[in-house]
Known about the structure:
By secondary structure, this protein is of the alpha/beta class.
Amino acid sequence: xxxxxxxxxxxxxxxxxxxxxxxxxxxxxxxxxxxxxxxxxxxxxxxxxxxxxxxxxxxxxxxxxxxxxxxxxxxxxxxxxxxxxxxxxxxxxxxxxxxxxxxxxxxxxxxxxxxxxxxxxxxxxxxxxxxxxxxxxxxxxxxxxxxxxxxxxxxxxxxxxxxxxxxxxxxxxxxxxxxxxxxxxxxxxx
Length: 190
Ligand SMILES: Cc1cc2nc3c(=O)[nH]c(=O)nc-3n(C[C@H](O)[C@H](O)[C@H](O)COP(=O)(O)O)c2cc1C
């Protein structure tokens, strides 16, 4: 069993995180969830899901923290985790992580993961990108974070939205070092 932090922000695509949490918990991992206020609003708008729905879905494995709770365990590097995923990551939160602002629990947790040299996977969703967005992604990449844009592929010939969501969730799991068959491994017909 491993321990992961999942952060959800107000970018489009909370469905990726919902899928990811499912897969992490299915594999008996501990998930520590933190969601921004805008993350909650956009998630409800896009999927109908609330934090309460998510919390109720799992009997064990999921710990949810209030975004303002800077006393939460994930606020400290002494609380060991195996990494953090911010999915979807808004350009707003991405900029604050890149600058080390740490003004809420999600930003602080990402800051801790970076300072402890743990794995940070950021899943930005915006298009087109301006120069500030690109510079902030470069900053995070230079600090060792994985920038994994929510960009489903088509070479796997997706048949549904679920297939496209699975592709991204699978690539996130792979970035965490978790083998899975949610994404299509290209083998060029071998
Ligand atoms: C329906 C909806 C979709 C949005 N999609 C995106 C998006 O894909 N990417 C993004 O960077 N911001 C998006 N935003 C704007 C963010 O929610 C906004 O910048 C917010 O301040 C982010 O706050 P947070 O990072 O604290 O969650 C969206 C807003 C709404 C209402």
